[in-house]
Every structure is written in structure tokens, then in C-alpha cells.
Amino acid sequence: MEWNLQGIPDDRVDAPYPKVQASGPNRSAARQMLDNVGGSNSEMPAVAPYVCNGLIPPSDGPLAMLFHRISIVEMRHLQIFGTLAAQLGENPRLWTWRCGRMAWWSPGYNTYTSELRPLLAAAAEGERRAIEKYRRQRDEIHDPNITENLSRILLDEQAHLRAFEYLLQTLD
Fold it and tell me: Quick one: average pLDDT of 128-153?
């Protein structure tokens, strides 16, 4: 199926990102930021399949370009969360704190498919889970810079969700 993405809601947000500067060390907030980098519900499980989805033939088509654009935004989020984790006192790697120790991110967290409906449904569900998580973190963390960054990142995730939901509706 060749996609015409003319009617799709904009997947990009035209708003600047705030400065990335945590107030100071905070182990709890640092681990939450690390979980945004390398947890099972994090930016890595968004980036990896979006990059792969952009390679699905026709890899030069509009849908591939959409996945590519969104993967670039998700990589920016990854960088922001990694920087915040470091500023807050953790070693920014593709890992998270789980069961009292660090656990590496795994590509096994991802669902890979070349079937269009499951691919778009998984992308939409990943965005929904990220939105829920970042809203919760924004309410729990009391560092104004982190909450500003989470609020800005939420705008991106909401735009991505609108785009994926629109594409899913066009399949019906």
C-alpha cells in the first residue's frame, strides 16, 4: 500500500526544548531518567523499531520517512534523558535500575513485524505508554527543569500518537 500522508496530523512540534540542567544530584529521579533511556518502556524501544520500520520496503516511501522523522525525535529524547540521568548522579548507559541492580536494555523488548496494522498498533501503544509514564514522572519529580523537559517531550509523544492513530483509522 502506498501512503499519501497529506491528511496526517503533524508528527512534529514547533516548540523549543528547554535547557537540560537538573538542579542537583537526586538518585531517585536519576533512576527514573535512566529508565526512560534503557527500560522496557523507554526511548530505546521506540528508536529501534522506528529505525527498522523506516527500512521496510518501500524504504523511500512516505511511511518510511514518517518513521525516520519520529526516530530522530525519539533519539533527541534519549539524549535529554541520558544527560539528565548523568546530571542527577547516574551513569547514562542503555540500562535501568531493576530488582536492586542495573539491567541492560534488550532488543528483545521490541516487537518486530512487517505487517502494517500490528506495526502501527505497536507504535501507537508505545506512544501511549510513554505518555502515561512521563505524565506520572512529571507529577512525582520536583525538579522544575526535569518537569519542563518532560512536558516538552510529552508534546512530541502526543503528536506521534495522533499520527499513528490517524494511520490506523485509515486502514479501517
Answer: 97
